[in-house]
Amino acid sequence: MDTSTSARRLADTAALLADPTRAAICLALLDGRAWTAGELARHAKVAAPTATGHLNRLVAAGLLAEERQGRHRYLRLAGPAAAELVEGLAQFTGGPAAPVASLRAARREGELARARTCYDHLAGALGVAVTEAMTARGLLDDRHGLALTPAGTDWLGANGVTVAPGRRAAVRACLDFTERRPHLAGAVGAALCGHALTAGWVERRPDSRAVRVTAAGERALHELLGLRWDAAPRDAGRSPDAA
Amino acid sequence: MDTSTSARRLADTAALLADPTRAAICLALLDGRAWTAGELARHAKVAAPTATGHLNRLVAAGLLAEERQGRHRYLRLAGPAAAELVEGLAQFTGGPAAPVASLRAARREGELARARTCYDHLAGALGVAVTEAMTARGLLDDRHGLALTPAGTDWLGANGVTVAPGRRAAVRACLDFTERRPHLAGAVGAALCGHALTAGWVERRPDSRAVRVTAAGERALHELLGLRWDAAPRDAGRSPDAA
DNA sequence: GGAACGCTTCGGCCCCGGCCGAAGCGTCGG
DNA sequence: CCGACGCTTCGGCCGGGGCCGAAGCGTTCC
Question: B58 and B26 in contact (C-beta within 8 Å)?
């Protein structure tokens, strides 16, 4: 491949996020939900035709995926790679100190800040607490990036969390937007989150990425990680539609 | 901070790489070397004024760092975060295995990675090895920044390395971009590099910042620092100037 | 001192692409 | 069946920004 060709490709990819409207759309979708085209247009403060053009472009580039339902067009980030791309850029933007303060502020309060899924893994205060408890117990090693220790591998197996073979080391640190601290992501994070859902440790709340820790979940967190998690009073999640 | 503000910031960051010329520049710098403005202009196939504008913009944004030396302007990626940003974007662009892998390989294997000058001092694997050997022998103290010990002062004098009086403590740690570890810079680093050149320990290679360790240099490194440096098989370094 | 060289500033050209209003199409609900 | 609604296409406006040549400035070399 020609060097100028790869330069042009890189530029094309960067150009996807080099527009304030498209950036606002992608940042909004970073919450993992599927938004309708109209919601995104209002959120980004542009007219519907403008949003349509941007969304077409983002979908064509493979950054967003869409599902059509009746007269609605639902959009979400196309996959973990797309989410990581947006996150990486957002992190560089503000430097280490101020990642995406708006998202953080918007979600600091409410159950989304406390316990939610971020794409495919646990996030919020819960995600950070689990990650730190695992690190403190020697299941994770955070000295050079984030890595699973041998003890961590055993722990996952002993607790019935199955990770695709050969992907045991697929651990990634994801910066939490509300906590501003890293939490467990990657294949292991996804497997752990899936197990927590199937084992009934946490439940999804309707129409939201927020999750609730069940009584069984509180017991499991305490027994397995020494974590004390209080079920907290919650108000219902807002619609993202607020202009 | 407003959500639209962070969107604009993200867009501004992405816009840095959203131009084929700037993308070509950043991809070229991914090899870890410092290129001159003119080399980058020729590489990206644009006129000098155009390159100047792009470089100003990239430096102002903190993506690139510059060092001015005489009539030359040397540019390099500002740090690991900048390199990771470019790499991350390039990876999303071309799928997992793209040109980035080869660039990384070039960075590690080229002779520039092995031994070169960085501004006025030794860098690359050689620079890092010398620095670490000096630290291990108590000639440098790296506990609070990098400093010359009394033993280090004696050692310099005994080996004929003259540092301007009153500048004995002028030691600076310079982050090596291929090794990503600190190496000796500052007045002492410059004096040591100059001595290594005049004493024939290392030779400059034509049209390049690369240096070659001579047989006499290997002996000196071994006797003075206990360092074993193998003259490595090398292919001729390409000039970055190739259009 | 003079010539070569590398970089920068200035001015002007030109095109890409973001934006919207109006109009059209399919879907949903009464 | 009709109106409300969500999304899309079309056409036209407009600004930002990439590009270069010419000229200028400081450095280096002879």
Answer: yes
Nearest to B23 among A14, A44, A92 (CB): A14
In the numeric block, the tokens 């090398």 are attached to B234
Determine the protein residue whose CA lies at the shortest distance from the C1' of D5: A71
131-160 on A, CB < 7 Å from strand C: none
Domain-wise residue ranges, chain A: 3-81, 100-225
Hey, what CATH topology would domain A3-81 get?
Answer: Arc Repressor Mutant, subunit A (1.10.10)
* Residues A208, A238: Cα–Cα separation, whole Å: 9
- Which element (helix H / strand E) includes A226? none
Strand partners, B122: B117
More confident residue, A66 or A169: A66
Task: Round to whole Å and give the CA distance between A205 and A201.
Answer: 13
Tens digit of pLDDT for each residue in A151-207?
888 898 888 888 765 554 567 766 554 554 667 877 788 888 889 988 889 887 655
Q: Which secondary-structure segment (H or E) carries A10?
A: helix A3-16
What are the residues whose beta carbons fall under 8 Å from the beta carbon of A134, sequence distance 6 or more? A140, A152, A155, A184, A225
ipTM (interface pTM): 0.59
Q: Does domain B3-107 have CATH number 3.30.70.100?
A: no
Tell me how far apart the alpha carbons of residues B208 and B210 are, in angstroms, rounded to a whole number. 5
